[in-house]
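Researcher: I've got a protein sequence and the SMILES for flavin-adenine dinucleotide. Could you write out the 3D structure of the bound complex as structure tokens? I'd like something to compare against our soaking experiments later this week.
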Amino acid sequence: MSGSTEQTPPAAALPEGFIKALGELLPRQRIVTDQAECWTYGYDNSRRHQLPAVVAIPDTHEQVCSLLKLCHEHRVPVTARGSGTATTGAAVPVPGGLVISFARMDSCLLYTSPSPRDRTRTRMPSSA
Ligand SMILES: Cc1cc2nc3c(=O)[nH]c(=O)nc-3n(C[C@H](O)[C@H](O)[C@H](O)COP(=O)(O)OP(=O)(O)OC[C@H]3O[C@@H](n4cnc5c(N)ncnc54)[C@H](O)[C@@H]3O)c2cc1C
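Model: Sure. Here is the predicted complex with flavin-adenine dinucleotide in place.
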């Protein structure tokens, strides 16, 4: 094999009924199955690249919980993705798996500043 790109499983390889069940959890526009679009969620800052079978882009904590439950039930491997900037390949999906992109979960939930030495910020996974 040249480089570190691996073979690409199609979304069709997902368990029967999985995409339909996913559609009951998320709006259609938050589910990516097109291979060209999925490809852009298959890399990080390492040299690895792997096409995910499907990408889910949740907005809420509840959606994330439901997604993980669904994937567990169907034995679909999950890879969490922030911005894909890490260098270890850990954000590169497992073959045949689902990527949860946290791109839309970018709000700052709480910011407190009780003192200059003890500042705390509670934020969603993708907020800077
Ligand atoms: C040029 C450069 C300079 C850098 N400098 C620094 C630096 O000075 N200091 C520093 O600390 N780091 C530095 N980094 C590392 C950078 O901060 C990390 O790449 C970053 O923390 C990864 O965040 P990400 O959202 O892109 O995660 P990703 O790359 O998308 O994912 C990283 C890992 O976290 C997991 N993950 C992502 N989101 C979640 C989630 N919501 N829940 C659970 N798991 C999740 C992924 O599955 C993966 O295993 C640098 C990186 C680059 C490329």
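Model: The chain has three helices and six strands. Residues 25 and 62 are 10 Å apart (CA to CA).
Researcher: Great, I'll pass this along to the crystallography team.
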